[in-house]
Design a protein that fits this description.
Length: 68
């Protein structure tokens, strides 16, 4: 985990609202609204990769700040 970054929703159409990523987010910035994942406060993202690694549908990705 050499790069530092923030979470980004890269494939929202794949989200099935399972909330696995929400359970693993240590800063509680992810919520599911109307069956879709939403980022509530990107500034609090610590780039831990928990959401990216836990998402079974590859909806989320941690990207470097200049890739946002």
């Amino acid at each position: 985990m050499s790069k530092k970054g923030k979470v980004k929703i890269t494939h929202p159409e794949r989200c099935k609202g399972c909330e696995i990523c929400v359970m693993y987010c240590p800063t509680d910035i992810l919520v599911v609204k109307k069956g879709q994942i939403t980022i509530t406060d990107i500034d609090n993202c610590v780039g831990c990769y928990n959401c990216e690694l836990s998402c079974p549908d590859f909806v989320l990705e941690v990207v470097e700040n200049n890739e946002r």
